[in-house]
Amino acid sequence: MAVVGIEVTSGAPPQPDAPTISPNSTAVVDIRELVGSLTVVDKLDAIGGYERSCAAGKGCSFGQSWTDDYDGPGAHNGCDTRNDVLAAQLEDVVHKPGSRGCKV
User: Are 104 and 87 in contact, with CB atoms under 8 Å apart?
Assistant: First the structure.
């Protein structure tokens, strides 16, 4: 399966070889409508047989958690790699209260 990147123009210059579409194109409007129809919940009820933990004796369904132990921007700052990347690449970033400025 091939994955194709689409860049929506936002005043920034397009990336080389990336297709560019208008922010008002049908595809962008459809995506915005779909995202707008999503429901965000604070917490899900427990689901039997689902185990996220990778602690000793646990199922480790999704592999090891994100780490802060790497060599790169934001390394060893107390925030995991996922949140470092999100904070660096998103606009208007808001951090979860009480997360020491880590959880985006």
Answer: yes
pTM > 0.70? no
For 81, other C-beta atoms within 10 Å of its C-beta total 17
State whether residue 49 is helix, strand or coil: coil
CA distance 26 to 6: 13
Rounded Cα–Cα distance for residues 3 and 96 (Å): 31
List CB contacts of 73: < 8 A, sequence separation 6 or more. Answer: 84, 88
pLDDT in tens, 62-96: 667 788 888 887 889 999 999 999 999 999 999 99
Location of structure tokens 């107390």: 78
**C-alpha to C-alpha distance for 53 and 101, rounded to whole angstroms:** 23
